[in-house]
Amino acid sequence: MEIRAASDDDWPGVWAIVAEVLAEGVAYTYDPEMTEDEARGKWLPPAPWRSTVTVDGGQVLGAATWGPNQSGPGSHISNANFVVSSETRGQGVGTALVEDTLARARAEGYAGMQFNAVVETNPAVALYERLGFEIIGTVPRAFQHPRLGPVGLHVMYLEF
Questions:
Q1: Per-position pLDDT tens, the chain of length 160
Q2: Which in 11, 22, 82, 131 has the greatest CB count within 10 A?
Q3: Are 27 and 11 in contact (CB under 8 A)?
Q4: Helix and strand tally (H, E) in the chain?
Q5: CA distances from 94 to 42, 67, 125, 140 (A)
Q6: Distance between CA atoms of 158 and 160, rounded to whole angstroms?
Q7: Domain of 144?
Q8: How far apart are the C-alpha atoms of 94 and 85, rounded to whole Å?
Q9: Which candidate, 117, 123, 114, places its Cα nearest to that of 140?
Q10: Structural domains counted in the chain
């Protein structure tokens, strides 16, 4: 397994995972009708944002994006997004992506990382907490889960 900068050649593999996550509808506040072009703008974004992929034998297993959480006076805090193929969840791909992204954000001089809307039922919450993130607030019933109904969205933060 290798983590490297994402390229245009990786897009078909990244899109397959993003489309899967959109169809599941349980982890992101994305519009389920998001087009491929809209998704591409989020997962292969322009600078100052960056994207990486986890690959094994040429197959994209997961992807990450990170950059400033806000512009101007808030740009010293990073934000990030992660997707992992359902076939490889639970095999360390997500952990590797998050750890790599944290290291890269630190190296770029960010002071911390903030997640603005983590679905409270997302198994990644436990991963984020294990890596030092804290839940600093929860917006109750802010996410319409397709099976569980309204659930909360966590704001999570890790100071570097």
A1: 999 999 999 999 999 999 999 999 999 999 989 999 999 999 999 999 999 999 999 999 999 999 999 999 999 999 999 999 999 999 999 999 999 999 999 999 999 999 999 999 999 999 999 999 999 999 999 999 999 999 999 999 999 9
A2: 82
A3: no
A4: 4, 7
A5: 18, 18, 12, 26
A6: 6
A7: 2-159
A8: 9
A9: 117
A10: 1
How are beta strands 77-84 and 112-119 bridged, if at all? parallel
CATH code, domain with 62: 3.40.630.30
Two structure tokens written together for 72? 């101007």
Residue 31: DSSP 8-state: -
Which residue type is seen at 44? Answer: L
User: What is the DSSP secondary-structure string of 54-99?
Assistant: EEETTEEEEEEEEEESSSGGGTTEEEEEEEE-TTTTTTTHHHHHHH
User: Alpha-carbon distance 113 to 79, whole Å?
Assistant: 5
Q: Pull the structure tokens for residue 151.
A: 């659930």
Q: Which two tokens stand for residue 106?
A: 């630190």
Q: Which amino acid is at 75?
A: S
* Burial class of residue 133 (count of CB atoms within 10 Å of its CB; 0-12, 13-18, 19+): buried
